[in-house]
């Protein structure tokens, strides 16, 4: 009991000698400038599975083929069959096989997610450098390679959000 009182007394003396004012602590981590509304708007590019947040613009398969050849083919190979980048089309083995091939056509649940992914992170050497029209076009080309849309289809916010992907029911949907 005596040891406990001594320890408490020492602790109180230590506290009495310590200043606990706001001036002793920095105001924040000083990690940069506060984000203004324009910066937040630039980075707030969320696109929901149902199409909410899709930007204006449009693109078709032929334009998408040209975008793909210029920016994507170097990693994903002609026709999206994969090289240093993932295979995007042309799966011969489905998801239930011993060696499943995950491609846009047999794995991705939403076409809007494909658009969002391309817009945010492609091409790998210059993310977010493609215009909205280029992203719609290359998305159209990739969906065409996976037999999801026709060669003459044009994608925009309305048409893209209506596409039903073959594996749309293969995931648990937290948005329903």
Structural description of this entry:
This protein has 176 residues and is mainly alpha-helical. The protein is 41% helix and 3% strand. It contains 7 helices and 2 strands. A two-stranded antiparallel ribbon has the order 1-2. Helix 5 crosses helix 6. The longest helix is centred in the middle third of the chain and has 16 residues. The model has no long low-confidence stretch (mean pLDDT 87).
Which helices and strands occur, and which strands form pairs?
Blueprint: H1 2-16, H2 37-43, E1 58-60, H3 61-76, H4 104-107, H5 111-121, H6 132-145, E2 154-156, H7 157-161
Antiparallel strand pairs: 1-2
Provide a compact summary of the structure.
The protein is built from seven helices and two strands, in the order H-H-E-H-H-H-H-E-H.
Distance separating the two termini: 62 Å
Unreliable segments of 5+ consecutive residues: none
Overall mean pLDDT: 87
How are strands sequenced across the largest beta sheet? 1-2
Measured by DSSP, the beta-strand proportion falls in under 5%
The description of the largest β-sheet is: 2 strands, antiparallel
Order of helices and strands: HHEHHHHEH
Count of DSSP-assigned helices: 7
Estimate the global geometry from the Cα principal axes: elongated
Rg, Å, rounded: 26 Å
Number of beta-strand segments? 2
Q: Determine the fraction of residues in helical runs and give it as a percent range.
A: 40-55%
């Amino acid at each position: 009991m005596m040891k406990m009182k001594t320890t408490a007394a020492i602790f109180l003396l230590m506290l009495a000698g310590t200043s606990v004012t706001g001036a002793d602590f920095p105001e924040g981590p000083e990690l940069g400038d506060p984000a203004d509304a324009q910066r937040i708007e630039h980075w707030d590019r969320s696109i929901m599975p149902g199409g909410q947040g899709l930007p204006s613009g449009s693109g078709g398969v032929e334009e998408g083929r040209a975008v793909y050849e210029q920016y994507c083919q170097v990693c994903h190979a002609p026709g999206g069959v994969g090289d240093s980048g993932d295979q995007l089309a042309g799966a011969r083995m489905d998801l239930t096989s011993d060696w499943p091939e995950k491609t846009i056509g047999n794995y991705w649940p939403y076409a809007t997610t494909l658009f969002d992914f391309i817009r945010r992170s492609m091409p790998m050497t210059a993310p977010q450098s493609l215009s909205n029209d280029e992203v719609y076009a290359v998305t159209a080309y990739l969906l065409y390679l996976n037999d999801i849309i026709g060669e003459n289809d044009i994608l925009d916010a309305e048409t893209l959000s209506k596409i039903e992907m073959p594996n749309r029911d293969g995931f648990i949907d937290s948005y329903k």
